[in-house]
Write a structure and sequence with these properties.
The protein has about 325 residues and is α/β, with parallel strands linked by helices. It folds into two domains: about 130 residues, Nucleotidyltransferase, domain 5 (2-Layer Sandwich); about 160 residues, 2-Layer Sandwich (Nucleotidyltransferase, domain 5). Helices cover about 40% and strands about 20% of the residues. The chain is built from nine helices and twelve strands. α7 packs across α8. The chain starts with a strand and ends with a helix. The model has no long low-confidence stretch (mean pLDDT about 95).
Length: about 325
C-alpha cells in the first residue's frame, strides 16, 4: 500500500458510508447518509455527493489523491457504471463519472461489494500475506472476489469471483439470476432460513425467522436448524472447491451476516470442504472467518483506490 490519503465510499441499499483512509489502513474521518433507495437516481446521487461534501470539510481533503467506490452490484467497472439490484433508480448509472466530478476531478476506482470485501481482507484481514485467496460475503446474497498472484483479480467488468452464481445443484431450485441450484439459492441467509421453515423449524415467541435465529436454534441443538446450516455449508464448500480447482487457492475467507453463526457454519463447512477439495493441490486449502467486519466495504474501496494509483504510476513509468 502507498502512503497517499484516499477517499472511500461504500454504497449499499441501506446506507452510503464514506471515509478518508491513510496508507496504513487507518480510517481518519467518517461520514454517512441513509440511501434513498426508493427515490430516483439523481436523489441517490445527491446523497453520495453529501457524503463527499462532509469528507471535504476538513483540512485532510487536500491530501486526497484518489477515490475508491465499493458498490452493491452488478457493477460494470469497464464502463464505470452500476445497476444495483437494491437501488432501482440506478440502472447503468455512470457513477464513476459523477464521483469524479463531485470529488474535484480525482481518479475514481469502482469495485463491487464482494471485491471490496476481498481487497479489505487481503490488505488488513484474514487473507493478509496470502497470494491466492477467495473471499466470500454470505448475507442476503452470496458474493465474492479473488486475489491471484498477490493482486486483486477483478476481471474486465469487476465481477470476477462471484461465487454466488456457481451452480452446485444441477437440478436445483431456480435462482433469481435465471440459473438453477446456485450457491446463493442454497446458502444465502433468506434461503437458508426459508429452507428451515419448510422443513418444520419454528421460530421462538419473538417470531424471528432470520438466519441468525436459525443459527441460535442450531446452537441449542435443533436438528432441523442444524441440517439447514449443514446444507448451506455443503453448497459453499462445493463452490469454494470448484473455484480452488480452477485457479488454485491458499485460503478461503468467509464474511457477511451468515458467517456470524460461527462454528454452526464453519464446522460443517470445514468438513464438507475436506470432502470436496480432495486433489493434492487443493487439499491444504483452509477456510476462516473474515476479520474486517463492518468496515470491509470502506477498507476495500480504499485498497482498490490505492491499487489504482499504483497502476497509474506504473503505466506512467513504462510510458503506456
Amino acid at each position: 500500500m502507498h502512503t497517499e490519503l484516499v477517499a472511500a465510499l461504500d454504497i449499499g441499499g441501506t446506507k452510503i458510508a464514506g471515509a478518508l483512509v491513510d496508507g496504513g489502513g487507518a480510517i481518519l474521518t467518517r461520514a454517512q447518509r441513509p440511501t434513498p433507495a426508493r427515490e430516483d437516481g439523481e436523489t441517490v446521487m445527491r446523497a453520495v455527493e453529501a457524503v463527499l461534501a462532509d469528507l471535504a470539510v476538513g483540512p485532510l481533503w487536500a491530501s486526497v489523491r484518489a477515490v475508491g467506490v465499493g458498490s452493491a452490484g452488478p457493477v460494470d467497472a469497464a464502463r464505470g457504471a452500476v445497476s444495483p439490484v437494491n437501488i432501482p433508480g440506478w440502472r447503468d448509472y455512470p457513477l464513476v463519472e459523477r464521483v469524479h466530478r463531485a470529488s474535484g476531478g480525482r481518479p475514481v476506482t469502482l469495485v463491487g461489494d464482494g471485491v471490496a470485501m476481498t481487497a479489505a481482507e487481503h490488505w488488513q484481514g484474514a487473507a493478509q500475506g496470502y497470494d491466492n485467496a477467495l473471499c466470500l460475503v454470505v448475507s442476503t446474497g452470496v458474493g465474492g472476489g479473488l486475489v491471484l498472484g498477490g493482486r486483486l483479480h477483478t476481471g474486465p467488468t469487476g465481477n470476477a469471483g462471484h461465487i454466488g452464481h456457481i451452480s452446485v445443484d444441477l437440478d436445483g431450485d431456480p435462482c433469481a439470476c435465471g440459473s438453477r441450484g446456485c450457491v446463493e439459492r442454497i446458502a444465502s441467509g433468506p434461503h437458508l432460513a426459508r429452507r428451515a421453515l419448510d422443513e418444520g423449524w419454528r421460530p421462538g415467541p419473538d417470531g424471528d425467522v432470520s438466519a441468525a435465529a436459525v443459527a441460535a436454534a442450531a446452537r441449542a441443538g435443533d436438528p432441523v436448524a442444524t441440517a439447514s446450516f449443514e446444507r448451506a455449508a455443503r453448497a459453499l464448500a462445493a463452490g469454494i472447491a470448484a473455484t480452488a480447482h480452477l485457479v488454485e487457492l491458499d485460503i478461503a475467507v468467509v464474511g457477511g451476516g451468515v458467517a456470524g453463526a460461527g462454528e454452526v457454519l464453519f464446522a460443517p463447512l470445514r468438513r464438507s470442504l475436506a470432502a470436496y477439495a480432495t486433489l493434492s493441490f487443493v487439499r491444504d486449502l483452509t477456510v476462516v472467518p473474515a476479520l474486517t467486519g463492518t468496515d470491509a466495504g470502506l477498507l476495500g474501496a480504499a485498497a482498490a483506490a490505492c491499487e489504482g494509483l499504483a497502476d497509474a504510476k506504473a503505466d506512467a513509468l513504462t510510458g503506456e
